[in-house]
Amino acid sequence: MTRIILDAMGSDNAPKNETEGALVAVRELGIEISLAGPRSVVQAELDKHPGYPISAIQVVDAPQVIAMDEPVAQAIRRKPQSSISVGMQLVQEGKADGFVSAGNTGAIMVIAKMVMKMIGELDRPAVGAVLPTLTGRPALLLDVGANAECKPLHLLQFAIMGDIYARSIMDVKSPQVGLVSIGEEQLKGNELTRETHKLLSQSALQFIGNVEGQGVFSGKADVVVCDGFTGNVILKVSEGLSEMLLKVFQQEFVEKESSVGSGLSLEAFREFRRRFDYEESGGAPLLGIKNVCVICHGRSGQRAIANAIKMAVDLVEKRVPERIGAEMAQLKALAIRD
Amino acid sequence: MTRIILDAMGSDNAPKNETEGALVAVRELGIEISLAGPRSVVQAELDKHPGYPISAIQVVDAPQVIAMDEPVAQAIRRKPQSSISVGMQLVQEGKADGFVSAGNTGAIMVIAKMVMKMIGELDRPAVGAVLPTLTGRPALLLDVGANAECKPLHLLQFAIMGDIYARSIMDVKSPQVGLVSIGEEQLKGNELTRETHKLLSQSALQFIGNVEGQGVFSGKADVVVCDGFTGNVILKVSEGLSEMLLKVFQQEFVEKESSVGSGLSLEAFREFRRRFDYEESGGAPLLGIKNVCVICHGRSGQRAIANAIKMAVDLVEKRVPERIGAEMAQLKALAIRD
User: What's the CA gap between A98 and B210, in Å, rounded?
Assistant: First the structure.
C-alpha cells in the first residue's frame, strides 16, 4: 500500500489543516499517511477526530519545526530533527513512498537535494506549477522557484522533466513544449532564451517555440519552461491578479445588492472561485530528485493538502522519478556516443 | 493649443480605430490632432465622418507604413517616410507636442531614440504600463518591453522616471517604489535585483523594498521596477490571465442560462470587464526620451486610442520629459560633486 509522509507542521494553520487533509486523503485514496511533527502536538490534533482510522494514519515524531521565514542554512544546521528532514529521511530509506509539505519552500528544496538526492545526470531540481488554461486542460509551468539563475541546459532539463510529467500525470500523449519569452520569434528575448530556443529545437521534444506571457494561459502549450525567477514572478503575479479580480467581482456582483438586478449566488461564485484559486489547487511537484516530493502553498487548506497528497500518490504510482532517471541516463548515453 | 501627432496606421484595425479615437479626443479634450499616414487613405477614412472638425484634425502625409511584425532594422532602412518617422520628426522640430502610435513597438522605440533623442544622462528609454490594483489606485510598472538585459543603474533610472510620472500624472505626493523580486528579503532574487536593491536603498526615493508578483496588484507600491524581460512577461501574463478569467466568467454567469438562478446582465458585466481590459486601458508612456511618446496596444479600439491621446496631453501639460531631464541633470551634478 502506498504510504505518504505528510509534514504536519508546514502550513500557516498547521497541524490542523494537515490533519484534516490527511483524513480526507486516506478516506478518498485508500492509502497510508504518516504525519511528521512533534508527537504530542500532532497526536493532540488527531485526537480531535475520534474514530480516525488508526491503521491508516500514524504519527512520526519529529521534534523540531522549521519556520516559514527561517533562513535555510541556519534551519538546516540547527534543526536536524525537523519534520522535513525526518520525513524525507524515511522516504529515502524506502520506509515511505513520497513526501508532501506546505512548509518553507527553500528548506524543502535544499533538504530534498541533501537527503533524497538529485537524479544523477541532473544539475538542479525544478518546482512545477499546474496552471488552469482557456482550453480547460492544465499547463505545467516550470521552474517556478528553485533556480533564480539558469543556463540553457537547465531549461532543457526542465523541459524533459515537464514532458515526462505531462505524459505520466496529465495524460497528454505528445506534450507541446513552449519557452517563455517576450516575442514569438526565435531571436526575441534575452541571451538565455535565445540559446535555450536552439537547444529545444534540436531536442526530440514537441517544441512549439516561444510562448509570450498570455500564451501560458491560452493552453497552446502543455509544458512551459523558464528560469526560476521568471517562473516565480509569473506564479505570484497570477495569484495576485486572480485574487484581485475575484475579490472585486465578489464585491460587485455577489455581496452588493446590485442595482442592475444581478443576483449571483455566493454558492455559484464560490464554485467558480475554487477553479481559479491557488489556495485550492493543491501541490507543486519538485522534479529532479530521486524520490517523490510535493510542495504546497503555505496557505493550503485541507482540500489543497488532500489534492497535493493525491498528486504525490500519482507520482509514485506512475514512477515519475524513475522515468526521469531513465530518460536522463539514455540522453547521457546518446551524448557520449555522439 | 496642444497638438498631438497620431500615427493613423498603427493598430490592427487602422486607420479606422485611430480616426474614430481622434474624433473622440478632439471633442473631449479640445486639442488638435494630426493623423500621420498615406494622405489618400487617411483622408478617405476621415471623409466617412462628414462634418468632422476640419480645424482640429489634419492629415500629415506619410506614404510608408511599418508593419506590426516587420523586422525593425529593415523597416527603418527601407521606410524613412513611415508614419512613425514622419510623425516623430514633426514633434522633434517643435511642430507638435507629442506622438501616439499603436504600431510596431520595437520600431517606435528605436525611431524615438534616433529622431526624438534620449535625455542626455539616460542610457535607455523605458515603457511603462499602468495597471489596476486592489486599492483602486493604479500602479506604474516599468520597464515592460524595451530592455531585455538590464543593469542595476538602468533600474534605478527607471525608478526615478516612474517616481516623476507618479507625482505628475497619477497625483501621488510621495510615490512608494517597489522592486520586482522573488522574495521580500533583500538577499532574495537574482544578481540584478540584489544590486538594484542596494542602489534603490541609497536613493532619495521612497523605496519600500522587494515586491513579489502578487504585490504588483495589491497596490502597496505606486511604481514597480524590473528589467524589460520580466516586465513584459508580467504584462502579457496579466493580459492572458484576465482574458481567461473574464471569458470563463462570461460563459458561466452571463451567457449560460444558469441553473443556479444567476441573472447577471451583460451590460453590468461589460462595465466590469472594461475596468480590467487591457484593450481598453489606453497607452503606455515611453519615458526617457526628450519628447512625449505614448504606445498603444495593437488591438486598441477607439476608446483606448482616445485614452492614450489623453495620456499624451497630460505628459505634455505636466512637462514630464523636461522634469525627467532636470532631475537627471541634478543627479549627475551631485554625483560629480561626491
Answer: 34
Summarize pLDDT for A178-210 with one digit per residue, the tens: 999 988 777 778 899 999 999 999 999 999 999
Put simply, the answer to whether B233 touches A258 (Cβ < 8 Å) is no
Which residue in B154, B91, B81 sits closest to B292, CA to CA? B91
Phi, psi of B249 (to 5 degrees): -60, -45
Interface probe with B: pick from A179, A233, A251, A258, most Cβ of B within 10 Å = A233
Q: Cβ separation of B237 and A216 shorter than 8 Å?
A: yes
Identity of residue B138: P
Amino acid at residue number A154: H
Instruction: Say what the pTM is.
Output: 0.90
> Among all residues of chain A, which has the CA nearest to that of B134?
A244
Q: How far is CA A128 from CA A63, A122, A150, A162, B224, in A?
A: 30, 16, 15, 8, 26
DSSP B132: -
Q: How does pLDDT run across B217-241, given as a tens digit for each residue?
A: 999 999 999 999 999 999 999 988 8
Q: Which three cell numbers stand for residue B240?
A: 492572458
Segments in chain A below pLDDT 70: 254-267, 275-281, 334-338
Task: Using the predicted structure, report yes or no on whether residue B260 has a pLDDT greater than 50.
Answer: no
Q: Is B1 exposed, middle or buried (0-12, 13-18, 19+ CB in 10 A)?
A: exposed
Locate A33 and state its grid cell: 499517511
